[in-house]
Amino acid sequence: MRTPGRDQVATALPGYDVGAELGRGGFSVVLAARHRLIGRDVAVKVLVDGGGSDDPSDVPEAGVGSSTSMRARFLSEARVLAGIDHPHVVRVHDYVEQDGLCLLVMEQLTGGSLASRARSGLDQRATCAIGLAAATALGAAHQHGVLHRDVKPGNLLFTADGVPRITDFGIAKILETMSVSPSTGLIGTPRYMSPEQIGGMEIGPATDLYSLGIVLYELLAARPLFPRTLPVPALLHHHLSVPPQPLREVREPLAAVVLTMLAKRPQDRPASAHELARRLATAATAVFGPGWLAASGVPVKLPDDILEAAGHRIAATPSAGPPGLVAAASHGSPPDLTRASNGPGMAAEPSSPPADWTTPSAPGGAGAPGGAGGLAGAGGVAGWPRQPGEPVWSAARPGASPLAPPMPPGGGPAAAPGGPHPWPGMGVAGTGPYPAGFEGRRGPGPAGHRSRGVSAGLIAIIAVMVMVSLAAVTIGLVVANRGGGDDGGPASSPAAYAGEARFIPGLDYVSRLALGSDGSVYATARLDDTGQPVGQVLRLQPDGVVTRLVASTSTKVDEAGSLLIPEVPAEGVPASELVLLNPHGIAIGPDGGVYVADSGAGRVYRITPDGRAYVVAGAGTAGETDDDGLAARAYIVPLGLAIAADGTVYIGDGPRIRRVTPDGMISTVAGRDDRRGCEGDGGPARDALLNDANGLALGADGTLYVADFAENVVRKITSDGIIRPVAGTIGSSGFRGDGGPATEAVLTSPQAVFAVADGTLYIPDGTNRIRRVGPDGIITTIAGSGQTVSDPDGLPATAADLEDPAGLVVDASGALYAALLNSARLVRVDPRDGTVRVLLAS
Question: Which residue spans traverse the membrane (predicted)?
Answer without folding.
Answer: 456-480
